[in-house]
Structure prediction request, 244 residues.
Amino acid sequence: MMVMVPLLQGVTKLLVLPVYVLLFLGLWDPLWKKLFPYFMIKFSRLYHQQLHKEKQQLFSNLADFTGSSGSLSLLEIGVGAGANFQFYPFGCPVIGMDPNPNVEKYLLKNIAENQHLRFEGFILASGEDLHQVPDSSVDMMVGTLVLCYVADVRVVLKEVVRVLRPGGAFYFMEHVAADRSSWTYFWQQVYDPTWQHLGHGCSLIKETWKNLENENFSKLNLHHIISPIKWTPIRSHIIGYAIK
Ligand SMILES: C[S@@+](CC[C@H](N)C(=O)[O-])C[C@H]1O[C@@H](n2cnc3c(N)ncnc32)[C@H](O)[C@@H]1O
Prediction:
């Protein structure tokens, strides 16, 4: 069946030919960078509704990572429009980070709707380079639906470990590659090249749990779940937290 993958990838590319024409002309990436936050919010509405319970449960023990000063500092990488803000505890100081400046206006709207937390600023940066944030300075970090975007997950996780204080936690929820023997994985491979263009860099076939397992965390609480969203190539997820 594997010989079918390149063939079906070609068919998929033909179905979205205008995208490939814009790519060839060098117009797709700048255009999509501007429009992507708008479409990301529209398309992810159902996703957030369907995974609300899982996220609520994931973030239910955030307060356990309160620092010795009694305060809880939180840095969210790939913050997007701030879909996770509603789950953060009352008074929590939050810094958002994202490499796309076009998310900021959507983020501001969400900050206004989440007055229970203290928004301390937005850093325009990629997860691969958090040099603005000192070593061991943050109690908690969050990254949801972001490791699928980054060019090198290992580099980002090294930055996460650097920035977290000892005993601090990194919370994650990511869609990942399905079981390699499954049909889902077959179709993920077929769609992946086109999905990466349509999703502004998002990959369907990352085995992100392996990166988390291999990183230098003292404890890893990781679960594989299947999201309830049917008929999409992003049903396989990992969810949990890793402690430095
Ligand atoms: C699908 S959105 C997820 C937003 C939010 N975390 C959520 O769960 O709704 C992915 C976000 O990751 C950002 N992103 C892309 N590449 C990144 C990178 N290398 N480092 C950090 N964030 C990145 C994108 O700009 C986008 O805002």
